[in-house]
Design goal:
heterodimer; A: alpha/beta; Elongation Factor Tu (Ef-tu), domain 3; Rossmann fold; 7-stranded mixed beta sheet; 13 strands; 21% helix; globular; B: alpha+beta; 4-stranded antiparallel beta sheet
Protein backbone atom coordinates (compact mmCIF):
# COMPACT_ATOMS: atom_id res chain seq x y z
CA UNK A 1 0.00 0.00 0.00
CA UNK A 2 1.51 3.24 -1.17
CA UNK A 3 1.49 6.04 1.36
CA UNK A 4 -0.86 8.83 0.31
CA UNK A 5 0.85 11.66 -1.56
CA UNK A 6 1.81 14.52 0.74
CA UNK A 7 -0.10 16.98 -1.40
CA UNK A 8 -3.40 15.14 -0.97
CA UNK A 9 -5.53 16.33 1.96
CA UNK A 10 -7.42 14.24 4.52
CA UNK A 11 -11.02 15.03 5.34
CA UNK A 12 -12.34 16.78 8.41
CA UNK A 13 -15.72 18.01 9.54
CA UNK A 14 -16.32 21.49 10.90
CA UNK A 15 -17.94 20.83 14.29
CA UNK A 16 -17.90 24.32 15.75
CA UNK A 17 -17.45 27.88 14.54
CA UNK A 18 -16.67 30.75 16.91
CA UNK A 19 -16.70 34.42 15.91
CA UNK A 20 -13.48 36.06 17.02
CA UNK A 21 -14.16 39.48 15.47
CA UNK A 22 -16.16 40.96 12.63
CA UNK A 23 -13.87 39.33 10.05
CA UNK A 24 -12.27 36.43 11.92
CA UNK A 25 -13.63 33.05 12.92
CA UNK A 26 -12.21 29.99 14.64
CA UNK A 27 -13.10 26.66 13.04
CA UNK A 28 -13.05 23.50 15.09
CA UNK A 29 -12.34 20.57 12.78
CA UNK A 30 -12.79 16.91 13.61
CA UNK A 31 -10.60 14.72 11.41
CA UNK A 32 -12.19 11.63 9.87
CA UNK A 33 -9.16 9.42 10.45
CA UNK A 34 -6.37 11.24 12.22
CA UNK A 35 -5.56 11.36 15.91
CA UNK A 36 -4.55 14.97 16.29
CA UNK A 37 -0.85 15.30 17.02
CA UNK A 38 1.11 18.50 16.57
CA UNK A 39 3.66 20.68 18.32
CA UNK A 40 2.84 24.25 19.22
CA UNK A 41 3.57 26.55 16.29
CA UNK A 42 3.02 24.01 13.52
CA UNK A 43 0.44 24.75 10.85
CA UNK A 44 -2.18 23.16 8.63
CA UNK A 45 -3.13 23.64 5.00
CA UNK A 46 -6.92 23.79 4.78
CA UNK A 47 -8.74 22.98 1.54
CA UNK A 48 -12.11 24.30 0.53
CA UNK A 49 -12.97 21.93 -2.28
CA UNK A 50 -13.34 23.73 -5.58
CA UNK A 51 -11.75 26.90 -4.26
CA UNK A 52 -8.26 26.16 -3.05
CA UNK A 53 -5.99 25.68 -0.11
CA UNK A 54 -4.36 28.05 2.37
CA UNK A 55 -2.08 27.75 5.41
CA UNK A 56 -3.20 28.51 8.98
CA UNK A 57 -1.55 28.08 12.36
CA UNK A 58 -2.93 25.22 14.44
CA UNK A 59 -4.39 27.43 17.14
CA UNK A 60 -5.99 24.92 19.52
CA UNK A 61 -4.80 23.21 22.67
CA UNK A 62 -2.32 20.55 21.51
CA UNK A 63 -3.43 18.23 24.34
CA UNK A 64 -6.78 17.76 22.63
CA UNK A 65 -6.66 14.78 20.31
CA UNK A 66 -10.20 14.68 18.90
CA UNK A 67 -10.14 17.92 16.98
CA UNK A 68 -7.96 20.85 16.06
CA UNK A 69 -8.74 24.48 15.41
CA UNK A 70 -7.65 27.04 12.88
CA UNK A 71 -8.54 30.69 13.12
CA UNK A 72 -9.22 32.46 9.89
CA UNK A 73 -9.47 36.08 8.90
CA UNK A 74 -11.51 36.54 5.73
CA UNK A 75 -9.13 38.25 3.33
CA UNK A 76 -8.81 36.07 0.24
CA UNK A 77 -10.71 33.53 -1.83
CA UNK A 78 -10.17 30.47 0.40
CA UNK A 79 -10.72 32.36 3.65
CA UNK A 80 -13.88 34.07 2.44
CA UNK A 81 -15.32 30.77 1.29
CA UNK A 82 -14.36 29.14 4.60
CA UNK A 83 -16.37 31.83 6.35
CA UNK A 84 -19.41 30.80 4.35
CA UNK A 85 -19.20 27.19 5.52
CA UNK A 86 -21.35 25.94 8.41
CA UNK A 87 -20.93 23.26 11.01
CA UNK A 88 -21.21 19.87 9.38
CA UNK A 89 -19.32 21.03 6.28
CA UNK A 90 -16.37 18.96 5.14
CA UNK A 91 -12.99 20.49 4.46
CA UNK A 92 -9.64 19.02 3.51
CA UNK A 93 -6.58 19.42 5.66
CA UNK A 94 -2.89 18.58 5.62
CA UNK A 95 -1.23 18.74 9.01
CA UNK A 96 0.96 19.05 10.91
CA UNK A 97 3.35 21.01 8.74
CA UNK A 98 6.47 23.00 9.56
CA UNK A 99 8.66 23.40 12.61
CA UNK A 100 7.07 24.91 15.69
CA UNK A 101 8.29 26.81 18.75
CA UNK A 102 11.41 25.40 20.48
CA UNK A 103 9.30 24.03 23.33
CA UNK A 104 11.99 21.98 25.09
CA UNK A 105 14.45 24.82 24.94
CA UNK A 106 11.89 27.17 26.47
CA UNK A 107 11.42 24.96 29.53
CA UNK A 108 12.74 26.53 32.69
CA UNK A 109 13.09 29.89 30.95
CA UNK A 110 11.38 33.24 31.23
CA UNK A 111 9.24 33.86 28.18
CA UNK A 112 7.88 37.11 26.79
CA UNK A 113 5.46 36.87 23.91
CA UNK A 114 5.07 40.02 21.86
CA UNK A 115 2.02 39.56 19.71
CA UNK A 116 0.08 41.69 17.26
CA UNK A 117 -3.40 41.12 15.83
CA UNK A 118 -4.06 37.70 14.31
CA UNK A 119 -0.52 36.70 15.36
CA UNK A 120 -2.14 35.42 18.54
CA UNK A 121 -3.21 32.31 16.60
CA UNK A 122 0.42 31.34 16.04
CA UNK A 123 1.17 31.32 19.79
CA UNK A 124 -2.15 30.17 21.25
CA UNK A 125 -1.22 26.47 21.05
CA UNK A 126 2.01 27.25 22.88
CA UNK A 127 0.14 29.27 25.51
CA UNK A 128 -2.11 26.26 26.10
CA UNK A 129 0.96 24.04 26.41
CA UNK A 130 2.51 26.39 28.98
CA UNK A 131 -0.83 26.69 30.77
CA UNK A 132 -0.98 22.92 31.27
CA UNK A 133 2.65 22.60 32.43
CA UNK A 134 2.93 25.98 34.10
CA UNK A 135 5.58 24.93 36.65
CA UNK A 136 7.94 23.81 33.87
CA UNK A 137 8.38 27.41 32.73
CA UNK A 138 9.73 30.53 34.41
CA UNK A 139 8.15 33.95 34.32
CA UNK A 140 5.75 34.06 31.34
CA UNK A 141 4.30 37.29 29.97
CA UNK A 142 2.02 37.92 27.03
CA UNK A 143 2.13 41.40 25.51
CA UNK A 144 -0.72 41.55 23.03
CA UNK A 145 -1.76 44.47 20.87
CA UNK A 146 -4.61 45.00 18.44
CA UNK A 147 -5.90 47.90 16.44
CA UNK A 148 -9.01 48.25 18.62
CA UNK A 149 -10.60 46.42 21.59
CA UNK A 150 -13.03 44.48 19.38
CA UNK A 151 -10.05 43.12 17.46
CA UNK A 152 -8.46 41.54 20.53
CA UNK A 153 -8.92 37.87 19.65
CA UNK A 154 -9.17 34.64 21.65
CA UNK A 155 -11.02 36.58 24.38
CA UNK A 156 -12.48 33.50 26.12
CA UNK A 157 -9.12 31.73 26.10
CA UNK A 158 -7.46 34.79 27.62
CA UNK A 159 -9.85 34.52 30.57
CA UNK A 160 -8.38 31.10 31.26
CA UNK A 161 -4.80 31.98 30.47
CA UNK A 162 -4.82 34.99 32.81
CA UNK A 163 -5.19 32.67 35.77
CA UNK A 164 -1.66 31.35 35.28
CA UNK A 165 0.03 33.78 32.90
CA UNK A 166 0.70 37.51 33.09
CA UNK A 167 -1.22 39.26 30.31
CA UNK A 168 -0.80 42.85 29.10
CA UNK A 169 -3.14 44.17 26.42
CA UNK A 170 -2.95 47.32 24.36
CA UNK A 171 -4.94 48.83 21.51
CA UNK A 172 -4.02 51.43 18.91
CA UNK A 173 -7.46 53.02 18.96
CA UNK A 174 -9.50 52.74 22.18
CA UNK A 175 -13.27 52.49 22.10
CA UNK A 176 -15.62 53.86 24.73
CA UNK A 177 -15.14 52.09 28.03
CA UNK A 178 -11.60 50.89 27.28
CA UNK A 179 -9.47 51.54 30.35
CA UNK A 180 -6.40 49.57 29.36
CA UNK A 181 -3.21 50.51 27.55
CA UNK A 182 -3.29 52.56 24.39
CA UNK A 183 -0.53 52.49 21.76
CA UNK A 184 1.51 50.08 19.73
CA UNK A 185 2.74 46.89 21.32
CA UNK A 186 6.36 48.07 21.38
CA UNK A 187 5.29 50.69 23.93
CA UNK A 188 4.23 47.84 26.21
CA UNK A 189 7.81 46.55 26.18
CA UNK A 190 8.90 49.88 27.66
CA UNK A 191 6.16 49.73 30.24
CA UNK A 192 6.41 46.06 31.30
CA UNK A 193 10.21 45.97 31.09
CA UNK A 194 10.69 42.23 30.59
CA UNK A 195 14.11 40.89 31.53
CA UNK A 196 16.52 41.11 28.58
CA UNK A 197 17.52 37.53 29.46
CA UNK A 198 13.99 36.39 28.67
CA UNK A 199 13.13 34.42 25.55
CA UNK A 200 11.10 36.66 23.25
CA UNK A 201 8.53 35.17 20.90
CA UNK A 202 7.44 37.70 18.31
CA UNK A 203 4.53 37.30 15.95
CA UNK A 204 2.33 39.77 14.13
CA UNK A 205 2.04 41.82 10.96
CA UNK A 206 5.39 42.51 9.20
CA UNK A 207 5.60 46.15 10.26
CA UNK A 208 4.91 45.25 13.90
CA UNK A 209 7.59 42.53 13.83
CA UNK A 210 10.11 44.88 12.29
CA UNK A 211 9.65 47.53 14.98
CA UNK A 212 9.45 44.96 17.76
CA UNK A 213 12.82 43.49 16.76
CA UNK A 214 14.33 46.98 16.68
CA UNK A 215 12.92 47.61 20.15
CA UNK A 216 14.28 44.28 21.40
CA UNK A 217 17.73 45.21 20.06
CA UNK A 218 17.40 48.45 22.00
CA UNK A 219 16.49 46.79 25.31
CA UNK A 220 19.35 44.31 24.97
CA UNK A 221 17.47 41.11 24.16
CA UNK A 222 19.75 38.32 22.95
CA UNK A 223 19.15 37.58 19.24
CA UNK A 224 19.58 33.83 19.85
CA UNK A 225 16.76 34.04 22.39
CA UNK A 226 14.40 35.90 20.08
CA UNK A 227 12.09 33.77 17.92
CA UNK A 228 9.72 34.95 15.22
CA UNK A 229 6.85 33.36 13.34
CA UNK A 230 6.71 34.23 9.65
CA UNK A 231 3.84 34.24 7.23
CA UNK A 232 4.19 33.67 3.50
CA UNK A 233 2.30 32.42 0.49
CA UNK A 234 2.77 28.66 0.92
CA UNK A 235 1.17 26.42 -1.68
CA UNK A 236 2.71 23.08 -0.77
CA UNK A 237 3.90 23.37 2.84
CA UNK A 238 6.69 20.92 2.00
CA UNK A 239 9.50 23.04 0.59
CA UNK A 240 8.70 22.11 -3.01
CA UNK A 241 6.78 24.95 -4.64
CA UNK A 242 9.40 27.63 -3.96
CA UNK A 243 7.11 30.49 -2.97
CA UNK A 244 8.12 30.93 0.67
CA UNK A 245 11.87 30.85 0.06
CA UNK A 246 13.66 33.44 2.20
CA UNK A 247 16.64 35.41 0.91
CA UNK A 248 19.09 33.15 2.75
CA UNK A 249 17.66 29.97 1.26
CA UNK A 250 15.49 28.81 4.16
CA UNK A 251 11.87 27.95 3.51
CA UNK A 252 9.15 29.26 5.80
CA UNK A 253 7.06 26.11 5.34
CA UNK A 254 9.65 23.44 6.10
CA UNK A 255 12.37 25.28 8.06
CA UNK A 256 9.81 27.48 9.86
CA UNK A 257 7.35 29.09 10.24
CA UNK A 258 9.11 29.65 13.57
CA UNK A 259 12.68 30.92 13.21
CA UNK A 260 15.38 32.02 15.60
CA UNK A 261 15.73 35.70 14.74
CA UNK A 262 19.46 35.54 14.07
CA UNK A 263 18.99 32.73 11.55
CA UNK A 264 17.05 34.86 9.11
CA UNK A 265 17.91 38.11 7.44
CA UNK A 266 16.23 41.30 8.60
CA UNK A 267 15.30 42.12 4.99
CA UNK A 268 12.86 39.19 5.12
CA UNK A 269 11.05 40.82 8.03
CA UNK A 270 10.16 44.02 6.21
CA UNK B 1 37.13 0.36 -10.86
CA UNK B 2 34.71 1.34 -13.59
CA UNK B 3 34.71 -0.86 -16.64
CA UNK B 4 34.40 0.56 -20.11
CA UNK B 5 33.10 -1.27 -23.16
CA UNK B 6 33.10 -0.56 -26.86
CA UNK B 7 29.65 -0.22 -28.43
CA UNK B 8 29.84 -0.38 -32.25
CA UNK B 9 27.48 2.08 -33.92
CA UNK B 10 25.25 -0.69 -35.31
CA UNK B 11 24.58 -1.98 -31.80
CA UNK B 12 23.06 1.31 -30.64
CA UNK B 13 19.71 0.52 -32.35
CA UNK B 14 19.90 -2.95 -30.77
CA UNK B 15 20.22 -1.35 -27.35
CA UNK B 16 17.38 1.04 -28.25
CA UNK B 17 15.11 -1.89 -29.09
CA UNK B 18 16.01 -3.74 -25.89
CA UNK B 19 15.14 -0.66 -23.83
CA UNK B 20 11.93 -0.21 -25.83
CA UNK B 21 10.66 -3.50 -24.40
CA UNK B 22 10.41 -1.95 -20.98
CA UNK B 23 10.35 1.82 -21.41
CA UNK B 24 8.71 4.58 -23.36
CA UNK B 25 11.79 5.98 -25.03
CA UNK B 26 12.29 9.72 -25.01
CA UNK B 27 14.95 10.86 -27.43
CA UNK B 28 15.92 13.99 -29.33
CA UNK B 29 14.13 14.26 -32.66
CA UNK B 30 14.55 16.88 -35.34
CA UNK B 31 11.75 19.15 -36.44
CA UNK B 32 12.79 21.92 -38.82
CA UNK B 33 16.08 23.29 -37.55
CA UNK B 34 15.30 22.48 -33.91
CA UNK B 35 15.51 19.41 -31.72
CA UNK B 36 12.83 18.29 -29.28
CA UNK B 37 12.63 15.50 -26.74
CA UNK B 38 9.88 13.24 -28.06
CA UNK B 39 8.54 9.81 -27.23
CA UNK B 40 9.78 7.66 -30.12
CA UNK B 41 9.04 4.07 -31.03
CA UNK B 42 11.49 3.76 -33.88
CA UNK B 43 15.24 4.29 -33.78
CA UNK B 44 15.18 5.91 -37.22
CA UNK B 45 13.40 8.92 -35.72
CA UNK B 46 16.18 9.56 -33.21
CA UNK B 47 18.50 12.41 -34.10
CA UNK B 48 21.62 12.36 -31.95
CA UNK B 49 23.51 15.05 -33.82
CA UNK B 50 22.31 18.02 -31.78
CA UNK B 51 23.50 20.61 -29.30
CA UNK B 52 20.36 21.13 -27.21
CA UNK B 53 16.64 20.49 -27.40
CA UNK B 54 14.12 23.32 -27.03
CA UNK B 55 12.79 22.14 -23.66
CA UNK B 56 14.44 19.95 -21.02
CA UNK B 57 13.36 16.62 -19.49
CA UNK B 58 11.19 18.05 -16.72
CA UNK B 59 8.15 17.95 -19.00
CA UNK B 60 8.19 14.14 -18.69
CA UNK B 61 9.09 13.61 -15.03
CA UNK B 62 7.32 16.69 -13.74
CA UNK B 63 4.72 17.65 -16.35
CA UNK B 64 3.05 21.03 -16.37
CA UNK B 65 -0.64 20.79 -15.42
CA UNK B 66 -0.31 17.51 -13.54
CA UNK B 67 -3.47 16.46 -11.72
CA UNK B 68 -2.69 15.81 -8.07
CA UNK B 69 -6.07 14.33 -7.20
CA UNK B 70 -9.72 14.37 -8.19
CA UNK B 71 -12.67 14.77 -5.85
CA UNK B 72 -16.35 13.95 -5.92
CA UNK B 73 -18.67 15.79 -3.58
CA UNK B 74 -21.44 13.48 -2.33
CA UNK B 75 -24.27 14.27 0.04
CA UNK B 76 -22.50 12.93 3.11
CA UNK B 77 -18.93 12.59 1.98
CA UNK B 78 -16.20 13.79 -0.33
CA UNK B 79 -14.33 11.13 -2.24
CA UNK B 80 -10.71 11.89 -3.02
CA UNK B 81 -8.91 9.84 -5.63
CA UNK B 82 -5.35 9.88 -6.83
CA UNK B 83 -3.28 7.48 -8.82
CA UNK B 84 0.34 6.51 -9.11
CA UNK B 85 1.87 8.42 -11.99
CA UNK B 86 2.02 6.67 -15.32
CA UNK B 87 5.08 6.67 -17.52
CA UNK B 88 8.18 4.57 -17.40
CA UNK B 89 10.66 6.57 -19.39
CA UNK B 90 14.05 5.88 -20.86
CA UNK B 91 15.81 9.13 -21.69
CA UNK B 92 17.95 8.12 -24.63
CA UNK B 93 20.90 10.11 -25.88
CA UNK B 94 20.48 13.06 -23.55
CA UNK B 95 23.44 15.33 -22.94
CA UNK B 96 25.12 15.61 -19.52
CA UNK B 97 23.58 19.03 -18.79
CA UNK B 98 20.09 17.56 -18.98
CA UNK B 99 20.85 14.34 -17.09
CA UNK B 100 22.77 16.20 -14.38
CA UNK B 101 19.75 18.46 -14.05
CA UNK B 102 17.85 15.42 -12.79
CA UNK B 103 20.24 15.24 -9.84
CA UNK B 104 19.29 18.84 -9.05
CA UNK B 105 15.58 18.09 -9.48
CA UNK B 106 16.04 15.09 -7.15
CA UNK B 107 17.44 17.45 -4.55
CA UNK B 108 14.57 19.92 -4.95
CA UNK B 109 11.67 17.50 -5.35
CA UNK B 110 12.79 14.26 -3.72
CA UNK B 111 14.79 15.06 -0.60
CA UNK B 112 13.13 16.32 2.59
CA UNK B 113 9.50 15.74 1.61
CA UNK B 114 9.57 13.70 -1.60
CA UNK B 115 7.05 14.69 -4.22
CA UNK B 116 4.86 11.65 -4.94
CA UNK B 117 4.59 12.04 -8.69
CA UNK B 118 8.11 13.15 -9.54
CA UNK B 119 9.80 10.67 -7.24
CA UNK B 120 8.00 7.64 -8.65
CA UNK B 121 8.54 8.60 -12.26
CA UNK B 122 12.19 9.29 -11.57
CA UNK B 123 12.63 5.97 -9.80
CA UNK B 124 11.13 4.20 -12.82
CA UNK B 125 13.29 5.98 -15.36
CA UNK B 126 16.41 4.82 -17.19
CA UNK B 127 18.95 7.26 -18.54
CA UNK B 128 21.38 6.90 -21.41
CA UNK B 129 23.69 9.89 -21.50
CA UNK B 130 25.56 10.85 -24.62
CA UNK B 131 28.59 13.09 -24.39
CA UNK B 132 28.52 16.13 -26.67
CA UNK B 133 30.32 16.27 -29.98
CA UNK B 134 29.82 19.99 -30.29
CA UNK B 135 28.68 23.00 -28.30
CA UNK B 136 27.52 26.47 -29.26
CA UNK B 137 27.94 30.01 -28.00
CA UNK B 138 25.37 29.46 -25.22
CA UNK B 139 26.79 26.26 -23.68
CA UNK B 140 28.61 26.74 -20.38
CA UNK B 141 28.55 23.28 -18.74
CA UNK B 142 32.30 23.39 -18.13
CA UNK B 143 31.99 26.56 -16.07
CA UNK B 144 29.55 24.84 -13.70
CA UNK B 145 31.39 21.47 -13.63
CA UNK B 146 28.58 19.73 -15.45
CA UNK B 147 30.32 18.33 -18.53
CA UNK B 148 30.94 14.98 -16.80
CA UNK B 149 27.78 13.07 -15.81
CA UNK B 150 27.33 13.27 -12.04
CA UNK B 151 26.82 10.12 -9.98
CA UNK B 152 23.14 9.20 -10.02
CA UNK B 153 22.49 11.03 -13.26
CA UNK B 154 22.76 8.06 -15.62
CA UNK B 155 22.46 4.31 -16.03
CA UNK B 156 24.56 4.20 -19.18
CA UNK B 157 26.90 6.81 -20.52
CA UNK B 158 28.26 6.93 -24.02
CA UNK B 159 31.29 8.70 -25.44
CA UNK B 160 31.61 8.84 -29.22
CA UNK B 161 34.85 7.07 -30.19
CA UNK B 162 36.26 5.32 -33.27
CA UNK B 163 32.98 5.49 -35.16
CA UNK B 164 31.08 3.90 -32.26
CA UNK B 165 30.89 4.64 -28.55
CA UNK B 166 32.76 3.92 -25.38
CA UNK B 167 30.20 2.82 -22.85
CA UNK B 168 30.01 2.59 -19.11
CA UNK B 169 27.10 1.27 -17.06
CA UNK B 170 25.91 1.98 -13.55
CA UNK B 171 23.61 -0.31 -11.57
CA UNK B 172 22.44 -3.90 -12.02
CA UNK B 173 19.87 -3.21 -14.70
CA UNK B 174 22.35 -1.40 -16.91
CA UNK B 175 25.09 -3.98 -16.23
CA UNK B 176 22.70 -6.69 -17.31
CA UNK B 177 21.81 -4.86 -20.50
CA UNK B 178 25.48 -4.45 -21.33
CA UNK B 179 26.19 -8.13 -20.77
CA UNK B 180 23.33 -9.07 -23.09
CA UNK B 181 24.86 -6.86 -25.77
CA UNK B 182 28.09 -8.91 -25.50
CA UNK B 183 30.46 -5.98 -25.73
CA UNK B 184 34.23 -6.01 -25.61
CA UNK B 185 36.04 -4.19 -22.85
CA UNK B 186 38.00 -1.14 -23.78
CA UNK B 187 40.07 1.56 -22.14
CA UNK B 188 38.38 4.66 -20.69
CA UNK B 189 37.71 7.49 -23.13
CA UNK B 190 40.01 10.48 -23.18
CA UNK B 191 37.61 13.11 -21.94
CA UNK B 192 37.89 15.91 -24.41
CA UNK B 193 38.20 19.09 -22.41
CA UNK B 194 37.48 22.52 -23.77
CA UNK B 195 34.34 21.77 -25.72
CA UNK B 196 32.67 25.06 -24.66
CA UNK B 197 33.76 28.21 -26.46
CA UNK B 198 35.18 29.46 -23.17
CA UNK B 199 35.38 28.30 -19.58
CA UNK B 200 34.95 30.75 -16.73
CA UNK B 201 35.91 30.60 -13.07
CA UNK B 202 32.67 31.48 -11.37
CA UNK B 203 32.69 33.06 -7.91
CA UNK B 204 32.18 30.59 -5.05
CA UNK B 205 28.82 30.35 -3.26
CA UNK B 206 30.36 32.19 -0.29
CA UNK B 207 31.56 34.99 -2.50
CA UNK B 208 28.18 35.28 -4.24
CA UNK B 209 26.49 35.33 -0.84
CA UNK B 210 28.62 38.29 0.20
CA UNK B 211 27.56 40.04 -3.02
CA UNK B 212 23.87 39.96 -2.13
CA UNK B 213 23.74 43.72 -1.73
CA UNK B 214 25.87 44.40 -4.80
CA UNK B 215 24.51 47.29 -6.84
CA UNK B 216 25.22 45.32 -10.00
CA UNK B 217 22.03 43.33 -9.31
CA UNK B 218 20.01 46.49 -9.96
CA UNK B 219 21.60 46.88 -13.39
CA UNK B 220 20.69 43.33 -14.38
CA UNK B 221 17.21 43.61 -12.90
CA UNK B 222 16.79 46.76 -14.98
CA UNK B 223 17.67 44.81 -18.10
CA UNK B 224 15.41 41.81 -17.33
CA UNK B 225 11.86 41.81 -18.75
CA UNK B 226 10.59 39.31 -16.12
CA UNK B 227 9.03 37.25 -18.89
CA UNK B 228 10.01 33.89 -17.39
CA UNK B 229 11.55 32.37 -20.54
CA UNK B 230 14.61 31.38 -18.53
CA UNK B 231 12.42 29.55 -16.02
CA UNK B 232 10.24 27.78 -18.57
CA UNK B 233 13.28 26.51 -20.43
CA UNK B 234 15.43 25.75 -17.37
CA UNK B 235 16.07 22.04 -16.70
CA UNK B 236 16.32 22.65 -12.92
CA UNK B 237 13.56 25.23 -12.30
CA UNK B 238 10.68 23.41 -10.60
CA UNK B 239 8.59 26.00 -8.75
CA UNK B 240 4.87 25.52 -9.12
CA UNK B 241 1.43 26.91 -8.44
CA UNK B 242 -1.49 24.77 -7.28
CA UNK B 243 -4.98 25.36 -8.65
CA UNK B 244 -8.43 23.88 -8.22
CA UNK B 245 -11.03 23.19 -10.84
CA UNK B 246 -14.66 22.29 -10.26
CA UNK B 247 -17.46 21.35 -12.65
CA UNK B 248 -20.56 23.45 -13.34
CA UNK B 249 -22.72 21.34 -11.03
CA UNK B 250 -20.19 21.85 -8.19
CA UNK B 251 -20.04 18.09 -7.66
CA UNK B 252 -16.61 17.10 -8.85
CA UNK B 253 -13.28 18.56 -9.77
CA UNK B 254 -9.58 18.22 -9.48
CA UNK B 255 -6.51 19.90 -8.07
CA UNK B 256 -3.57 20.37 -10.39
CA UNK B 257 -0.26 22.13 -10.47
CA UNK B 258 1.27 24.33 -13.09
CA UNK B 259 4.76 25.67 -13.58
CA UNK B 260 5.37 28.99 -11.91
CA UNK B 261 8.41 31.15 -11.42
CA UNK B 262 10.06 33.38 -8.88
CA UNK B 263 10.55 36.28 -11.29
CA UNK B 264 6.80 36.86 -11.37
CA UNK B 265 5.39 39.43 -8.98
CA UNK B 266 2.33 37.34 -8.13
CA UNK B 267 4.48 34.42 -7.03
CA UNK B 268 4.73 35.57 -3.41
CA UNK B 269 1.47 37.48 -3.21
CA UNK B 270 -0.65 36.63 -0.18
CA UNK B 271 -4.34 37.18 0.47
CA UNK B 272 -4.85 40.86 1.17
CA UNK B 273 -2.37 41.83 -1.53
CA UNK B 274 1.00 41.89 0.24
CA UNK B 275 3.87 40.76 -2.02
CA UNK B 276 6.89 39.48 -0.13
CA UNK B 277 9.37 39.48 -2.98
CA UNK B 278 8.26 42.65 -4.64
CA UNK B 279 11.26 44.53 -6.00
CA UNK B 280 12.67 43.62 -9.40
CA UNK B 281 16.06 43.28 -7.75
CA UNK B 282 14.85 40.56 -5.37
CA UNK B 283 12.83 38.78 -8.03
CA UNK B 284 15.77 38.78 -10.43
CA UNK B 285 18.32 37.41 -7.98
CA UNK B 286 16.20 34.79 -6.21
CA UNK B 287 16.94 32.26 -8.99
CA UNK B 288 20.65 33.00 -8.79
CA UNK B 289 20.78 32.54 -5.03
CA UNK B 290 18.81 29.33 -5.27
CA UNK B 291 20.98 27.84 -8.01
CA UNK B 292 24.41 29.23 -7.23
CA UNK B 293 24.36 29.49 -3.40
CA UNK B 294 21.61 27.48 -1.71
CA UNK B 295 21.84 24.31 -3.82
CA UNK B 296 25.67 24.16 -3.98
CA UNK B 297 25.86 24.66 -0.20
CA UNK B 298 23.51 21.73 0.44
CA UNK B 299 24.19 19.44 -2.53
CA UNK B 300 27.83 20.16 -3.23
CA UNK B 301 26.96 20.78 -6.88
CA UNK B 302 25.65 23.75 -8.78
CA UNK B 303 21.90 24.12 -9.23
CA UNK B 304 22.63 25.09 -12.84
CA UNK B 305 24.04 22.64 -15.36
CA UNK B 306 25.06 25.07 -18.09
CA UNK B 307 22.66 23.94 -20.81
CA UNK B 308 22.46 27.50 -22.12
CA UNK B 309 18.71 27.52 -22.78
CA UNK B 310 18.10 30.58 -20.58
CA UNK B 311 20.55 32.58 -22.69
CA UNK B 312 19.25 31.21 -25.97
CA UNK B 313 15.66 32.18 -25.12
CA UNK B 314 16.21 35.39 -23.16
CA UNK B 315 14.85 38.32 -25.19
CA UNK B 316 17.58 40.48 -23.60
CA UNK B 317 20.33 37.88 -23.96
CA UNK B 318 21.05 37.77 -20.24
CA UNK B 319 23.81 35.27 -19.57
CA UNK B 320 24.08 33.96 -15.98
CA UNK B 321 27.85 33.55 -16.29
CA UNK B 322 28.17 37.18 -17.30
CA UNK B 323 25.87 38.18 -14.44
CA UNK B 324 27.91 36.33 -11.82
CA UNK B 325 31.22 37.61 -13.14
CA UNK B 326 29.95 41.19 -13.20
CA UNK B 327 28.96 41.40 -9.54
CA UNK B 328 30.87 44.08 -7.74
CA UNK B 329 30.93 45.67 -4.34
CA UNK B 330 28.83 44.06 -1.64
CA UNK B 331 30.38 43.36 1.73
Amino acid sequence: MQEAPLLVPRLGEIIKIVDESYDTKTFRIKPADWKVEFSPGQFAEITVFGVGEAPFALSSDPQVKDYFEVSVRAVGSVTNMLHKLRTGSLVGFRAPLGVGWPVEQLEGQDITMVVGGTGIFAVSSLIWHIYHSRDKFGDVKILYGARSPDLLLKKREFENWRRKIEVHLTVDTPSEGWTGNVGVVTKLIDKVKPSPESYFLVVGPPVMMKFTLLKLDEVGAKPERVYVSLERNMKCGLGLCGRCRLSNGLYVCKDGPIFRSDRIWRCDLE
Amino acid sequence: MQRWYYLPEDKLPVMFNMLKEKYAIVAPTKNGDKHFYTVVDDYSKVSLNYVRTVTPLKKFLYPNGEILYTYNIKAENIEIEYSAPSGKYCFFGVHPCDSNALVVLDFILSSTHPDFHYTQRRRNSFIVVLDCKASDEYCFCESVNSRIPWPGSYNIRLYPANGGFKLQSQGAEADNLVSMLKLEETDPPALAGGINKSKFDLPSPDKILRLYESETWDEWAGKCLFCGSCIASCPTCACFDVRDEINGELTSGYRFRVYDGCVFKGFTKVAGGRVDRESENERFKNRFYHKFVEIPSALGRMGCTGCGRCIAYCPRGINPVEVLLSLKGGQ
